[in-house]
């Protein structure tokens, strides 16, 4: 589903994110966006949801699964697909381990029903592959990796077979394309495992399939457009199209929690703090919606960027109270630490710091960063930390003013001596001053050597983007390869993936 694919963009490229992205790339968004169709017989290759199923799926997309279930009475392939959409949405949005067994049992039951059905055509086969993919996600996320790997293999093979049997059925190309892209873009450290399972990836083939579904008329075209926009925004530096699309969808359906979430997320990613907070505060709420505590975690970040430390703490404390999962907990405690520390509340800051090490997992990169902070025992510099948050929030000139107060001496830790020019480079880069940014990125690389911090790898990646934009392809290649060369740092998976995809663009 698009919502969870977008949530996991924030987790960067790791095994958990891969499986979630693959498993949740099925949602037929046209159900929410297009006029319901008449319930008439259609050729197998163009079979689709009925009008009732489309209305029910529109409720799933709005994060109202109970309302969706209330409309579904039969046991056809389309109904089974929508019911599974509702179940996997609740499981992975809430991260409630108590729902896991019932969810997997329900998936097995629906798959058995699809095996027995007399329905033929693209939709039943598509539904079978999608539900198997959802099962792979559920299994991996809740610790059943071997079972999940086998389910992923089955889903991939089944979806490839749908594409082969029904080459004009574009929704299957959408899902297969997304799987191909993410498998093909994985860092080498993960690809060996998928090769053992016989899951070939192809960035070019995946984008081709995804673009076909996004650009050619089909029932699921709106979904494919969103997924393509998210991929291009994350990996190819094309933010405007995605933000324009989500604005349009949100205006059409202001009661859609998915679109509200995407609007917050994309504005946050583009450093539009005020716009992101406005979207957060205007989000639809009510008893019918699935609880989405991750939105509070995002809001806490936005308030932290603004220096609203008390409000940020309230949002993250509510997130930790309401969220049932194990991911982003360390990150939330770390952000609580920052809010207390920067506001001068030393006792609270120490309580929060101890909690980082007490629970949660280190699968997503944000949690890994928080854990390394605890284990490293190297105090943060308050000026550099404030500047980082200001840059993340889009307050670039304020960040430069903050950095003006930083003075490096012989006793200054190497990490801080690297962070200073890197933060200045980011501020000038985002202010549209590439010459100043290039100089400071280069200084960061020169100072770093092989230090195990992300500043030099990220500086190399950003220099690659700058030279690529200016048409200096050979120089861009040098810096993308430089970004790949660093053996160990906090954001290696995401940095390597972006550098690898950028090099493919330059081939």
TrEMBL record:
TPR repeats lie at residues 457-490. Keywords: TPR repeat. PROSITE patterns: TPR. The keyword Lipoprotein does not apply. This is DUF3808 domain-containing protein. It comes from Hymenobacter canadensis.
């Amino acid at each position: 589903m698009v919502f969870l694919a977008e949530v996991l963009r924030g987790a960067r490229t790791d095994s958990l994110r891969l499986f979630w992205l693959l498993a949740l790339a099925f949602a037929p968004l046209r159900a929410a966006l297009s006029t319901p169709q008449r319930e008439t017989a259609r050729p197998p290759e163009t079979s689709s949801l009925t009008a009732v199923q489309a209305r029910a799926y529109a409720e799933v997309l709005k994060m109202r699964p109970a309302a969706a279930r209330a409309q579904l009475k039969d046991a056809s392939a389309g109904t089974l697909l929508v019911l599974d959409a509702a179940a996997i949405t609740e499981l992975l949005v809430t991260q409630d381990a108590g729902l896991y067994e019932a969810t997997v049992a329900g998936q097995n039951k629906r798959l058995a029903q699809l095996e027995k059905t007399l329905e033929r055509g693209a939709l039943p086969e598509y539904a079978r592959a999608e539900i198997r993919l959802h099962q792979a996600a559920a299994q991996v996320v809740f610790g059943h990796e071997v079972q999940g790997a086998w389910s992923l293999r089955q889903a991939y093979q089944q979806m490839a077979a749908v594409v082969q049997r029904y080459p004009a059925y574009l929704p299957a190309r959408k899902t297969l394309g997304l799987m191909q892209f993410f498998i093909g873009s994985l860092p080498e450290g993960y690809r060996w495992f998928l090769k053992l399972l016989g899951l070939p990836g192809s960035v070019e083939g995946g984008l081709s399939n995804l673009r076909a579904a996004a650009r050619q008329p089909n029932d699921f075209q709106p979904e494919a457009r969103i997924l393509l926009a998210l991929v291009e925004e994350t990996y190819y530096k094309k933010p405007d199209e995605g933000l324009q699309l989500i604005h349009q969808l949100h205006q059409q359906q202001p009661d859609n929690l998915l679109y509200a979430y995407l609007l917050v997320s994309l504005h946050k990613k583009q450093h539009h703090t005020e716009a992101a907070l406005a979207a957060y505060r205007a989000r639809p709420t009510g008893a019918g919606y699935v609880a989405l505590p991750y939105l509070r975690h995002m809001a806490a970040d936005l308030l932290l960027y603004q220096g609203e430390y008390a409000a940020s703490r309230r949002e993250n404390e509510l997130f930790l109270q309401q969220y049932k999962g194990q991911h982003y907990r360390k990150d939330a405690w770390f952000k609580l630490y920052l809010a207390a520390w920067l506001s001068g509340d030393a006792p609270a800051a120490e309580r929060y710091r101890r909690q980082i090490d007490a629970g949660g997992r280190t699968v997503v990169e944000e949690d890994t960063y928080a854990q390394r902070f605890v284990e490293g025992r190297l105090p943060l510099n308050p000026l550099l930390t404030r500047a980082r948050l200001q840059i993340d929030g889009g307050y670039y000139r304020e960040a430069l003013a903050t950095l003006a107060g930083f003075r490096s001496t012989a006793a200054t830790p190497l990490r801080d001596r690297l962070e200073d020019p890197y933060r200045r480079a980011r501020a000038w880069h985002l202010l549209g001053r590439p010459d100043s940014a290039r100089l400071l990125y280069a200084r960061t690389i020169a100072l770093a050597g092989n230090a195990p911090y992300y500043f030099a790898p990220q500086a190399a990646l950003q220099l690659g983007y700058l030279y690529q934009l200016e048409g200096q392809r050979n120089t861009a290649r040098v810096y993308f390869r430089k970004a790949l060369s660093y053996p160990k740092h906090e954001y290696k998976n995401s940095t390597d993936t972006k550098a690898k995809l950028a090099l493919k663009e330059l081939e």
